[in-house]
Amino acid sequence: METNNSKVLLIYTGGTIGMIKDYQTGVLRAFEFDNLYSRIPELSHLDCEISVHSFEKVIDSSDMNPQHWVSIAEVIEKEYQHYDGFVVLHGSDTMSYSASALSFMLQGLAKPVIFTGSQLPIGDLRTDAKENLITSIQLAALKENGVSVIQEVGLYFEYKLYRGNRTTKVNAEHFQAFTSMNYPILVESGVHLKIMKDNLLKGKAKDQLEVWKEFEQNVAIIKIFPGITPELLNAFFNIPHLKGVVLETYGSGNAPTYDWFLEALRATIQRGIPIINVTQCSGGSVIMGKYEASEALRQMGIIDGKDITTESAITKLMILLKKNISPNLFKIKFEESLAGEF
Ligand code: ASP
């Protein structure tokens, strides 16, 4: 495997990774990625060519929205033929949402798109940003016989590359901020880069990249809890223009069996609003019909979210709702894996 002669584009959107601490004042300010090599001289040891595209207005990832996802995707679309791989520098807070969205948007992707960020600013003495950045660039440059080794959207953090749409941010303090409970890691970085070839996405790459750019934002994530009231549930389901719901249920997809609860769900589905059953557990899968508490959901046509993350489910829902397909086809399409998310 080689990285030489590869060209990698860094797309800088913001987040902690782009910060540098002024040691005199203690204030964090944005790092100039244009002067990347002078800031991180180690990069010159990589035998690939790195260019930087910076968002005009860099943002904390709490401000990310579908328009930003489209902006990231459009840079990749425009530069797709000119680069071998892409690294997206992004705040960690909503990185799993963006990585999930991009995995569905970049249809036919045959090159690596690696999201990364850091818990400490790049200018901090104990920063995790340098390792995350350098290894992400290496992964984005990696080729075998001239072909990209990674042909999917990944998320690299603290020595591990994960499938982007399988990740969740689980820790606000540890360097190990992300996990992928339902899918093994793609690459482990130690003395050597250990690439788990069997875990990489296969069979989705095409000659031509197609980019999906439409999102339905009239959607909701509803997390049930013991004591949830009919007023609250019905208020959610009666939000004007609501088009789809991700329902976070218990365990293997179980929900209350009260008549009012089931009736509220049934009425919503009958209005043509799809409801996706995902589990509140961070690992494991929805298995509708395993318990009586989920059999009623299965019978009324709730969509099986299987082992998808909430981040993936909501972004996939936003995209599929824009395809204007019948409720039956919608269910079939949602339950199919588009980018390795199940
Ligand atoms: N709040 C920051 C962000 O998500 C945290 C980070 O960058 O890790 O943009």
TrEMBL record:
It comes from the Bacteria. SUPFAM superfamilies: Glutaminase/Asparaginase. Pfam families: Asparaginase, Asparaginase_C. It is an enzyme of class 3 (hydrolase). Its EC number is 3.5.1.1. Keywords: Hydrolase. One of its GO terms (molecular function) is asparaginase activity. Residues 218-327 form the Asparaginase/glutaminase C-terminal domain. InterPro entries: AsnA_fam, Asp/glu_Ase-like_sf, Asparaginase/glutaminase-like, Asparaginase/glutaminase_AS1, Asparaginase_C, L-asparaginase_C, L-asparaginase_I, L-asparaginase_N. The active site is at 16 (o-isoaspartyl threonine intermediate), 16. Residues 7-196 form the L-asparaginase N-terminal domain. Gene3D superfamilies: 3.40.50.40, L-asparaginase, N-terminal domain (3.40.50.1170). One of its GO terms (biological process) is aspartate family amino acid metabolic process. Belongs to the asparaginase 1 family. This is asparaginase. The lineage of its organism: Bacteria, Pseudomonadati, Bacteroidota, Flavobacteriia, Flavobacteriales.
